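Lab manual, section 2.4: Encoding a predicted structure.

Procedure: take the sequence of the chain (256 residues), apply the prediction step described in section 2.3, and record the output as structure tokens. A sample record is shown.
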Amino acid sequence: MADKNGLDFRGQVVLITGGGGAIGNQLALAFGERGANLVLVDADKGKLATTQAEVEALGRQTLTGMLDVRDSAAVEVFVGRAWGHFGAIDVLVNTAGIYDRGPSVEFTEERFDRVMDINLKGTWLMCQAVGRRMIARARGRIINYTSNAGIRGTPAQVAYNISKAGVISLTKCLAVEWAKTGVVVNAVSPGPTDTPLMAEPFANTAFRDALASKIPAGDLTPVDATIIPVLFLASSEASRWVLGQTLFADGGMSAT
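Recorded output:
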């Protein structure tokens, strides 16, 4: 069913990276419920298949692929395939990312590179491949997932925080550079969210409770907290004058 206020995506095609993840799954269903067809990529075949089945149960078309967003050649090939299959991509949502933490003096170069390559480089490569085609078409919306970690100093999260700060900067740079092309770029930022991505660190109850205590709203960010914000930013009608922004949906944590 299409929403009022421009949140109607009938006839549009939405590409979601990390489409099998907790947030990616809910985004796919939200867009599908509002009429969009979906292109879904993920590194987890089983979770990707689950999201695909749920979206197709809504009567929507899907195209899926296992994709390493760090691989520029693979990204280019897949985006070209998706564009050819549907004729265009109207919205790109980059949710793919990883979390890794550890004392900075012990954090290995290999771990640092992996976080940066997936969270920042992967987002950049997807923006580049899809954005190039959107620019040629003179329209499109891109929403990148970052984190309030990107504006905060946090012990033992040096690589993660830097990668998310980079996504915020990337979003601003592309938004300004592409402002007159018809391609609009924004970002959304949840706070700490209880998803499978965070299962290992949140198994430490003291760590989880310490994070929750820093959030004015009193608890971790719900998984669905950024769904409506993404729909808003994806709508050329609802958010037509919003670009280069990071919309924080983190229970006020970024305000502290």
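Check your result against the sample. Residues 38 and 62 are 5 Å apart (CA to CA).
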